[in-house]
Amino acid sequence: LVNLYKLDDKRLYIGNLDSAIDEYTVVKLFEPYGKITHLDYLFHKSGPKRGQPRGYCFLEYSKKEEALKAMTAMHSKVIKNRSMIVTFAYAASENCDSKSIGGLKKRSSTAASNRPTTISLLKSHQMVNVR
After folding, report:
1. What is the CATH number of the domain that holds 84?
2. What's the number of domains the chain is made of?
3. Is residue 37 part of a domain?
4. What range(s) does the RRM domain occupy (predicted)?
5. Which of 1, 10, 59, 65 has an alpha carbon within 20 to 30 A of 74's alpha carbon?
6. Is the pTM of this model over 0.85?
7. DSSP state of 19
């Protein structure tokens, strides 16, 4: 995530959310700490869980002090029998386990992360035999 977003100290990752927690609830939980300027609440787009919440979201405050205050107050707070993970969005991939990032697993070795993906190979490959 570090490469996808600039290092934004106003943007928080909120993870390990129960599926009963909706956008309204997230806003109500976090608005006491400052002015929320943006909320990215993520849902499954396909598969058997299509339309259901992914269990994490990204929330942005107008000031970094507000984000820090919210992170300090809300990290590890238990909501619906789950301990929330609240951290800066740019640090989420380093601080959270694989389940809280939508099931994506972090690559452990630098050699594996330098390996090209299928999509990058397809994009860079010239289709010679197309007629």
Report:
1. 3.30.70.330
2. 1
3. yes
4. 10-91
5. 1
6. no
7. T
Alpha helix (H) residue ranges in the chain: 23-30, 64-74, 92-95, 110-113, 118-124
- The answer to whether residue 129 is domain-embedded is no
Give the tokens for residue 85.
């993970």
The amino acid sitting at 125 is H
List the domain range (segments joined by +) for residue 82.
7-90
pLDDT digit of tens for each residue in the chain (131 aa)?
444 445 678 999 999 999 999 999 999 999 999 999 999 999 999 999 999 999 999 999 999 999 999 999 999 999 999 999 999 998 876 545 444 334 333 333 344 445 555 555 455 544 444 44
In the numeric block, the tokens 């609240």 are attached to: 86
Write the single-letter amino acid at 69.
K
Q: Do the domain assignments include residue 35? A: yes
Please tell me what DSSP assigns to residue 127.
-
